[in-house]
Specification:
alpha+beta; Fructose-1,6-Bisphosphatase, Chain A, domain 1; D-Maltodextrin-Binding Protein, domain 2; eight-stranded mixed sheet; five-stranded mixed sheet; 17 strands; about 30% helix
Length: about 270
């Protein structure tokens, strides 16, 4: 699996996204999340490229569902991660494609077309931001100018005691990639689906970071999400010291029932 090949697919998808940007009409899916013609066209393109090149591989996509998820290799596609931002005319949206081998992320590519930013990794090399090696933030995590990424409904569901800044930007994949780049100290990403985070997790791991579940504090196991399920709990990402810091400083409002039920409203970036 060549990263150059995947990058070419994603660049082609980015051109489709730019064509629809600021003009896309929105419809609501049964779960009330939004979708546009750009989401559908991009996923169709990426599925066609994968099937033509790797016909034995499985595919899991936000718009097209699952195909052969028992395969050793599984591609997870989010045609536009940050659709809400996309339809609002905001630039933090991108194309996310990740490859897993037996549930472990081995390749990821996330592209922000408006900003022309690339986040990439495979199992051979380091995490890359615009072609240059990058890594997670490990120091100055509590500086007043440091920042973490949070979902847009954070004010309703969580209490965060963090001395730096919190920012809601609209794309789970972008959150994870900003952490991998060392720009953000960490992130809370709610209860994502695999397509939201597969590419980002490949980049994050190669950048020296990881992901843990908020309540149990266990490492996130992507194998629990291979058939399209949400993560079992909200997910926190960061470097090892950032994870320890954030898990102590983030609480669900009304711990207990709230800690179990808040996932219904947490997947708001996508």
């Amino acid at each position: 699996m060549e990263l150059d090949q995947v990058r070419a697919w994603v660049r082609e998808a980015g051109e489709i996204g730019r064509k629809y940007y600021n003009t896309a009409e929105v419809r609501r899916k049964p779960d009330r999340s939004v979708v546009t013609a750009a989401d559908v066209e991009i996923e169709q393109l990426l599925r066609a490229r994968i099937r033509a090149t790797y016909p034995q591989h499985g595919i899991l996509g936000e718009e097209g569902g699952v195909h052969n998820t028992d395969a050793e290799y599984l591609w997870a596609i989010d045609p536009i991660d940050g659709t809400g931002a996309f339809v609002s005319g905001l630039p933090i949206w991108g194309i996310s494609i990740g490859l897993l081998q037996q549930g472990h992320p081995i390749l990821g590519c996330f592209y922000l077309p408006v900003l022309d930013e690339w986040y990439e990794a495979d199992r051979r090399g380091p995490a890359l931001f615009n072609g240059q090696p990058t890594e997670v933030m490990r120091e100055n995590l509590l500086d007043s100018e440091a920042w973490i990424c949070v979902p847009s409904n954070i004010h309703r569901l969580y209490s965060i005691h963090y001395p730096g800044k919190v920012r809601s930007l609209g794309s789970m994949a972008a959150y994870i990639c900003y952490v991998a780049r060392g720009t953000a100290a960490g992130a809370l990403v709610g209860r994502p689906k695999l397509w939201d985070i597969a590419a980002g997790m490949a980049v994050l791991e190669r950048a020296g970071g990881g992901a843990r579940l908020l309540h149990s504090r266990q490492p996130l196991d992507l194998r629990t999400m291979l058939n399209g399920q949400s993560a079992p709990e909200p997910v926190v990402v960061g470097s090892p010291p950032a994870l320890e810091m954030l898990l102590k400083r983030i609480r669900a409002r009304g711990e207990g029932r709230g800690a179990r039920d808040e996932g219904r409203g947490m997947r708001d970036e996508g």
